[in-house]
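Chain and backbone:
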Amino acid sequence: MKHYFSIALMFFLTMFLISCAYNQYPYLNSDFTKETWQREIDRNPSHWARGADRWFLTGDPNATEIANKNAPDSAAISTMMVRVTDFTKITANGNFQVQIFGARDHNSVFVFGPNEDVRETIVTVNNGQLYLGQSDRAKSSMKRVIIRIGVKNLTQLVQMGCGTIEGIQLYSHHLTVSSSGSGNVYLAGDVNLTRAAVRGDGSVSVFGTRSPK
């Protein structure tokens, strides 16, 4: 008798736990033939550019650039032009701001901000890939540094840092975007986006994209 009572009690507890789990997680998909990921996508375009600055929205100088231009001479604001070879890929790992625009003739890189911070930026090109970083001596915040890049054809963008990356009037016939950092990415232009992977806390928003057929 005790044996049957134990079995009945175990069955009752099992059914009770199942019912609790179902009520606690009502969003669980009971029909695995139906996809449910679409409901997690924010379909409101006005939300996609949230956090983007004036440079991305209108092309005008953002608050950082205006503050640097209006800074006193004692702030030692400088602009450094970096001579680079041709590149189609960009990797950014830092706390600075990255502004990318579509270039017609040739690629270019300019670093703009306080002189002591500009000196701590790292800009290298290897096998067609532009790498942007900051030295170990750099301050914890490099937000007053703007790295402005002109690129004819962007094929790969990798976000590894916490600074914002923005791109306007871009052209790309085959673009992949990967983000593992906390900085947001905003891109706009004639872009054939073939892949986007987000593994970090930052968001990726692409406007004017042409998905491959």
Observations:
- Residues 58-209 form one domain.
- The first strand starts at residue 77 and ends at 82.
- The chain has one domain: 58-209.
- The mean pLDDT is 86.
